[in-house]
Give the backbone structure.
Amino acid sequence: MRLSESFSIDPNADWVQEHNAEVREVLAAYDSDKPIRVPMTSWDGAHMHGFYADEIGLDYRDYYSNVELMLQTQLEAARRRREIPVADLPLGQAPDTWSTALDMHPVPAPGWLGCEVLFRETSVPAHRCQHLSKEACRKMQMPDPRTGNFLGKIVPMWEEMKKLCEGLTYLGAPVGQPWSGVCQHGVFGLCIDLRGEDFMADMYEDPEFAHEFILKVATWCDALEAAWRPEGDKPGGYGFGDHGIEMLSPHLYEDFVVPVIKEINRRRGTTPPTGLHHCGTGTHLFPIMQNHFGLTAIDSLTFPLVDIAKVRADLGEDITITAGIESEIIKSGPPERIRQTVKELLTAAKGKGRFTMQVGDMLRGVPMDHRIAYYEAVKEFGTY
Ligand SMILES: [Zn+2]
């Protein structure tokens, strides 16, 4: 595997030193709950490679079928993130350990349950909903949580990646052992993946079936997480993040989903983690989550899709909010529109603190000057 042997920027250059000093100052102030400016965090995970894929003209069908290319792309993308000033991430410095993953995000769980997985040239994989009948849902048996359906493809690739990472160093730091990438993103979303939108009607027309089916799928999610938990680890809490819930009314959410989250945690002897990933529009459910699960932090809130100032007003100053600007706005620009959008958000929503912005890898085709304008706007309007 060919890997870069150095950063393409000079770590000792004045502009790099200035950037790094500001980053340290901003993050230290945030961590001590006395923020001087809203931090612009950078997702630094193995799934983040869209901008780098643009730079090298990556065909994603190759990335998802060639383990060596997958690992190389993850490492080189992590290096590039440390060369461009688009977030509060120190530049020109390797992390303690480079993180890697067998990256099939976001399809391992639906693929495991038998949804067809689609690979495309310019984007991450997607899956098709199955539209099963109620009868088929009732009869369905849990696929093997280690090797069932799509997981059978993941296992040998993961083994191959583990071997590649063994003893590997990159830019002076060790490469960690890869995460399997197998996890689930919410029981309700999976019910929709299997049964389709008809499941919304089921909740009114045949609530008994709907209750049974959600619990059945949640029980499988529990088994999936257990099967992929590192040996010897105790189970953590079963989370309530869910990509399918935004179309539920507060009443339906409380009636159908909350009890199932509580039941799986009861079986585990745990309580749910209090942080929530929510990139959708389900803000009307946050007060219920706060009530039942003691919500303390929300990440991936997207502006202007969601009225983040209202979320802050509803939930109070103690909630930690991490927000981003809609990818499409960053992609299409122009820079002044990006600046105005950030201004609008930060003026209304940054509150007294516990507010960060985040930038992921974004959609492919985002011009670099848009990414820079985004960061500059956070610096301009994010000060306290
Ligand atoms: Zn999401």
